[in-house]
Amino acid sequence: MEEENGELNPESGRASTKQHQEEEEEEDRKVVKFLDSADSYLDLFESLSSTLRQGWLELATARQSMGASRINSALFDLKYHSAATSLQVIQDDVKQPNFTLCKWVSIDNRNSSTEEAKFDENELFEKNSTNAQLRYRGTSEIQEKRPESNVSTLTVDDQIQKERSKSLSMFGTLVSPKLRSAQISFETALDTLVEMANMRSSLLSTYDQVHKDMASTKVDEKLIAQVQV
Amino acid sequence: MYGFEALTFNIHGGYLEAIVRGYRSGLLTAADYNNLCQCETLDDIKMHLTATEYGPYLQNEPSPLHTTTIVEKCTLKLVDEYKHMLCQATEPLSTFLEYITYGHMIDNVVLIVTGTLHERDVQELLEKCHPLGMFDSIATLAVAQNMRELYRLVLVDTPLAPYFSECITSEDLDDMNIEIMRNTLYKAYLEDFYQFCQKLGGATAEIMSDLLAFEADRRAVNISINSIGTELTRDDRKKLYSNFGLLYPYGHEELAVCEDMDQVRGVMEKYPPYQPIFAKLSYGESQMLDKAFYEEEVKRLCLAFEQQFHYAVFFAYMRLKEQEIRNLMWVSECVAQNQKSRVHDSVVFIF
Q: Looking at the record, which segments are called Disordered (chain A) (predicted)?
């Protein structure tokens, strides 16, 4: 029996050492993931700040070019209309909600469009709604699943351009290229904000996991200390 | 007869020419702009401007200041100076001075009509109108549903009435129609102003022809660039160009078919007066084009003061003052946004 016990103990010891090592590696991975997320979040924050500064300056440049009477808040359209861009919050995991931006696809357009246009707009919807996820996940899996011909890409880009022009039309149809640049800058800032929201969600989730691991490690250490005593 | 204005001009125009030359000496210099560009806050800008001719207009403004407040008060000074000159002027100078404000009138009409289309309050829109372009029945513009009503109800009794003959339709006012209306009105105004100056003759006709031709050419270039990638057809674009200027008619033919900035550049570089402007820009760039055009305009406006006994000095002063106000707006925006490194991107020095 003692011999049997002697044969069993080294194997279970090796198994528990291996398990312990794996746990440690897993903890280290979580810590690294947490630090990566924090770093990415700070980078996105800087990028947002710089994009917004650029956008505001371009807007001021456009006012300089077109005149203050052509670009001012009194021209904003107060008629009822659907938002050109919407944000979807998917909360499959309570602790890690996911944010998706759907750009330049207003409900008004979708309801009134023809069949062909609806097909184009559905493509537009899918392309714009997965864009934020593509950037967030950093993989090409989703891209490979959706075979895109050059012709449909051009049609979707034309549609996006039309929507952009439509939203700028409150300032007139012949606007300065600087105003269009300002629009692109603010659009980029919106994309960055959604990325930041997703990154923050991931950061908080990873933080919780690391915190939990640290708490359980402390409990284990206490137990070991008590046993030794 | 050209050359004999010295004999008779001062009878009716001498006092006002002296007044406007006095106003001109009050324009901000490069030293003033250098001081303003070093300001850290809008209150610093206000403090520096208090020591200039803008002092009485800004000194009582409470903090915190806004960039629009600075622009508003500086514009008030321009309006006061203009009104002083207008009330002292006799014909034909009084008509000439009124012509200078028709551009602002057109902008105000379009502002009210566009704002009404967007369901904005008329009072709010009236506050945003340029004071030089106000007229009595301007608030009634909000009632019109199409251009025919616009003309019949309001504009028939205004100086803009003759300019409406080309754009009276029963089509409803939408964004594209309003834009075409704006540019058509401005085209008609510029042509009418040009004809009026030709009738005046002498140094006024000569100098104003050059200044108005430059304005017409600049508008043609801006319309071409701004309409790239829009639904405006080539024919419609060509209809918005004025029927005078250095680019008329062959330059207009070529500009009408341009699809990008490089093609516009290719057209303009064929005209020697515009070669230096486009030489400053790199290929594909349009950011600095406005500044280049403003610099050229300021040069021509300053040259108008080199001759005496003509009305172009009044036009030149008004335009130089507007440029000064644009400069102040830009400096204020850069200071407010903490982007002082970009302040020299758009400031055009006058002296």
A: 1-30
Domains along the sequence of chain B with CATH:
5-19+83-309 (no CATH), 20-82+310-350 (1.10.132)
Express each pLDDT in A15-70 by its tens digit: 778 888 888 888 889 899 899 999 999 999 999 999 999 999 999 999 999 998 89
Using the Cβ of B91 and the Cβ atoms of chain A, whether some distance falls under 8 Å is answered with no
Which chain A residue has the Cα nearest residue B115?
A75
Q: How many residues does chain B have?
A: 351
Query: B120–A78: do the CB atoms touch at under 8 Å?
Result: yes
Check if the beta carbon of residue B2 is closer than 8 Å to that of residue B309: no
Query: Which one of B71, B114, B333 has the shortest CB-CB distance to A75?
Result: B114
Residues B35, B45 contacting (CB under 8 angstroms): no
Question: How many whole angstroms separate alpha carbon A182 and alpha carbon A45?
Answer: 19
Q: What is the CATH number of domain A18-67+84-104+176-228?
A: 1.10.287.3240
Residues of A in contact with B333 (CB under 8 A): 57, 60, 63
Contact A173 B176 (CB under 8 A): yes
Residue B221 corresponds to which amino acid?
V
Is residue B265's pLDDT more than 70?
Answer: yes
